[in-house]
Amino acid sequence: AQKVTQAQTEISVVEKEDVTLDCVYETRDTTYYLFWYKQPPSGELVFLIRRNSFDEQNEISGRYSWNFQKSTSSFNFTITASQVVDSAVYFCALSERLLGGSQGNLIFGKGTKLSVKP
Amino acid sequence: DTAVSQTPKYLVTQMGNDKSIKCEQNLGHDTMYWYKQDSKKFLKIMFSYNNKELIINETVPNRFSPKSPDKAHLNLHINSLELGDSAVYFCASRTPTRDEQFFGPGTRLTVL
Closest partner residue to B106 among A44, A89, A106, by Cβ? Predict the structure, then answer.
């Protein structure tokens, strides 16, 4: 079965601290995609990153960085020098290739609520 | 320009009523989805719709039905609303090549 686990339900940090959000996934497919989405208090879902299963390079975008490790089926997300505006629920998600080549739906983890205090 | 839009943003209704939520995307995507986010923030797929092929999550009650008048729209109809249907419903569309899903702003449904 396909599954995404975000073991951290809630994390609270003080501004300027670094914080890592963990994501572990399960899949039998060799071709799949991993995502992170941010859901701020306003409620919309904001796309942050997409990573395919063949690309294990880590990625950095400003204060955000992602560490994809196939060997441990993990796709962790680090925010450096956190800010109050980073307070949100962060979702990790998995999308798989179905039979016939069509892409599947997103399977979401339960989310990690990040609170950054000033 | 809004890529994926939903109306209404808020919907409050009585148990037993029938209601619809509209979704439109102007991205030219072929595949659209409906997701439900419950009170614990858990997001789960309800339907996917691609080139007139509807794939239904088996856990979705048949009171829910998606309707696609054209490629840019995927509306959600709900019959005989129940208290447990209260949730936020998100529409999404997917790029054909990069497999990125873009979400609408969500519709918060409250059933009284």
Answer: A44
Check residues A115 and B51 and name the one with the higher pLDDT: A115
The predicted-structure confidence for A24-78, as pLDDT tens digits, reads as follows: 999 988 888 899 999 999 999 999 998 888 888 888 889 999 999 999 999 999 9
Cα–Cα dist A15/A8, whole Å: 19
- Secondary structure, 3-state, A51-102: EECCCCCCEEECCEEEEEEHHHCEEEEEECCCCHHHCEEEEEEEEEECHHHC
Please name the member of B41, B45, B106 whose beta carbon is closest to the beta carbon of A105. Answer: B45
- Identify from A47, A53, A103, A112 which residue to disrupt to test chain B contact, counting B C-beta atoms within 10 A and taking the largest count: A103
**Distance (Å) from the C-alpha of residue B99 to the closest C-alpha of chain A?**
7
Is residue A72 within 8 angstroms of chain B, CB to CB?
no
